[in-house]
């Protein structure tokens, strides 16, 4: 299992709820969270096989943006 971190523009729990169905569909993602207290609003993803591109694509489909940390 690996942990990937991304800077995001996911600013609140409502935003995270919008992203949830998109990230939950990505094969290999076992858990994820957003650190709302961090300046970069870090998206932290636990994965067994999902790639950075798959995660970024899922979040962008929800209308948000990621930058690899």
From TrEMBL:
Residue ranges of every copy of the HMA domain listed in the record: 1-67
Superkingdom, natural source: Bacteria
PROSITE patterns: HMA_2
InterPro entries linked to this entry: HMA_dom (IPR006121), HMA_dom_sf (IPR036163)
Protein name, UniProt field: Heavy-metal-associated domain-containing protein
Originating organism: Flagellimonas aurea
